[in-house]
Automatic annotation (TrEMBL):
Bilayer-crossing regions: none
Protein's name in the database: Glycerate kinase
Signal peptide bounds: none
UniProt-listed SUPFAM superfamilies: Glycerate kinase I
GO molecular function terms noted in the UniProt entry: glycerate kinase activity
One GO term of the biological process aspect: organic acid phosphorylation
The family this protein is said to belong to: Belongs to the glycerate kinase type-1 family.
Amino acid sequence: MKIVIAPDSFKGSLTALKVGTIIKEAFSKELPDVDLEVIPMADGGEGTLDTLIYATDGTRKSLTASGPLLDPVETEYGVLGDNKTAVIEIAAISGLPMVPPGKRNPIYTSTFGIGEVIKQALEDGYRELIVGLGGSSTNDGGLGMLQALGARFLDEQDETLPSFGSSLFKLKRVDFTGLHPLLKEAKFTIASDVNNPLTGPNGATYVFGPQKGIADSELEAFDQAMGRYANLVENQIGLDLKEQEGAGAAGGLGFAFLILNARIESGSKIVADATRLQEKIVNADFVITGEGQSDYQTLLGKVPSFISSIAKEAGVKTILLSGSLGKGYEALYDHFLSCHSIATGPMSLGECMDNAEILLYNQARNIALLIKGISEECNNQVSI
């Protein structure tokens, strides 16, 4: 028997590689003779850099950049095993977990550090860049990132605006004449499974803003400010981009990268291609996948849904093992053989995250015992 273990990270708690390793350890205890292969996954969010470096035997480059609150943070970008492609993970520069819960509000967060890391990668000689867009704390439409790359955003007094989301409300003029010259040589591939436009009821602000700290009463004003920003930018560059799929990814960073002629691709597919996931699933008997929380949004292109689709095409059953099962999880039963949460009873999110390793191990062991029992029963029936 062969089992492929291909989870996403349990965000803020366990990396995808750690999740996969724990599941493998639990399965090995109950199924010591089974071929178990761990393939850590990501969809462009947290863990994308780690997964691509792991899959391609790449390297890391450390640097200091501005964090989401513009404080200096130690971060990194990766270089794939081809030694020519840089990988930048938004979550490692301006990620939501990097902002203390009491300070989470896109009015005060920035993407400036992302531009700094891009600039460094370009000046280090890399021209092909993969950017994982998930997990951001921001909703500035990429204004801060573009500032770091040489763009100017001005208020009605023609003064340069600060690199925060609040500047969307005061913006009167944009100037792209000072963009870094190496951007003309750069090829950006954006890893994102978010298809939302920049503005409107399905845009960045309304769909993702609340989880980043935007109050319901502020959503309309923020969305309108984002729309005015987009109109000024589009008038400057002569392109209509805000309605394109993916423009609303990462608080509008998708829109900013489209300005830089980026190509948006499925983050899950980029990682799956790098890890040769599909060819490994074809020969498996079961696939185990999971994420921090699975709910109705899981089916909107997230890693477990992507994995189950590949496995279904290959005629392989997929088991879902996640940190928790949230609103609308019942819809997942049509896509997975079974769905499991690591929680063993009433517990807070903090308790679950603090004890994630042992909870995951125990639940994975339960699933392994079930597979073991079914396998033994099948073998007994064959021998009879």
